[in-house]
Amino acid sequence: MAKYEDLEGKIVLITGGSGDLGRASVLEFGKQKCRVYFTYNSSKDSADELVASAEESGFEAFPIRCNISDKEQVNALVNDIVEKEGKIDVLVNNAGIYKDNLFTSMTDEEFEQVIQTNLYGTFYCTKSVVDVMYRNRCGAIVNVSSIAGVTNSFGQANYSAAKGAVVSFSRTLAAELAPKNIRVNTVAPGLIDSSMVKRIPRNIMKQTLSGIPVKRLGKPEEIAKAIAFLASEDSSYVVGQTLIADGGLIMR
User: Fold this and answer.
1) Domain limits, the chain
2) What pLDDT does residue 203 have?
3) Do residues 184 and 173 make contact, with C-beta atoms less than 8 angstroms apart?
4) 200-247 residue pLDDT tens
């Protein structure tokens, strides 16, 4: 495990902490000796399991229930952490949902819900945390997009729109915040071994894997390590970039 000494003791907020990538990220930052807060919405059992796993790994993780598509809940979340810790050093905007459908069959609700959570949720969390980082004149924000946000993704017009917007949002935000010593970057994972990917039929998955140069799915832990790198001072000159971690899937 790469050890980033500058992360030790940092206050980290990870949204969507009880999902596959969120869980891996919580454990990664915990191993870096950060104080880690994470959000969950409806999956309390998964959140409790993650807290237990963190304790087994020798650190404490702090779960907070929050629907990130609700601005008032997000503001209350950030205020609660700041009241306890006095600051937030790192924000990982990871929470997201998907409601896949062919565009001609996609409902307004399917489109709006994905945009509301994946894009507006990122905006609400970032806006609230940046107000805190501004006061301290330092911070790191890592937004989780997807290769669906930088290339086509059949049946995911809503998801692609949201994730593509996150990439553009991050680059503009990076330009605005860099003079304040707040760095913003994005990670765009490819196909990761997760509950989302497990829904893909076996025959389609076999075909998909044949198109990935490394011939395998990514691991949540691999993406979490990339996120930790972008949050650390080892990437202090990396600003406004999108790190594509997809096993080479879209490089061609």
Assistant:
1) 5-242
2) 83
3) yes
4) 788 878 888 988 999 999 999 999 999 999 999 999 999 999 999 999
| CB 63 within 8 Å of CB 38 | yes
- Cβ–Cβ < 8 Å for 18, 50: yes
Q: How far is CA 127 from CA 10, 40, 93, 97, in A?
A: 20, 19, 12, 20
- φ and ψ of 141, to 5 deg: -120, 130
Predicted TM-score of the model (pTM): 0.94
* CATH topology classification for 5-242: Rossmann fold (3.40.50)
Please state the φ and ψ torsions of residue 247, each to the nearest 5 degrees: 65, 15
Secondary structure letter of residue 178 according to DSSP = G
Q: How far, in Å, are 42, 53, 55, 102, 169 from residue 185 at the CA level?
A: 28, 28, 29, 30, 10
Q: Which residues contact 66 (CB under 8 A, 6 or more apart)?
A: 15, 39, 40, 41, 73, 74, 76, 77
Which residues are identified as catalytic?
159
**Spatial distance between the Cα atoms of 79 and 86, rounded to a whole number of angstroms:** 9
**Beta carbons of 33 and 4 less than 8 angstroms apart:** no
How many CB atoms are located within 10 Å of the residue 59 CB? 17
Cβ proximity of 155 and 100 under 8 Å: yes
Burial of 145 (0-12, 13-18, 19+ CB in 10 A): buried
Record the tokens describing residue 160, joined without a space: 């692609």
CB of 147 within 8 A of CB of 250?
Answer: yes
- 77 in Cβ contact with 64 (< 8 Å): yes
**Tokens matching residue 26:** 């919580």
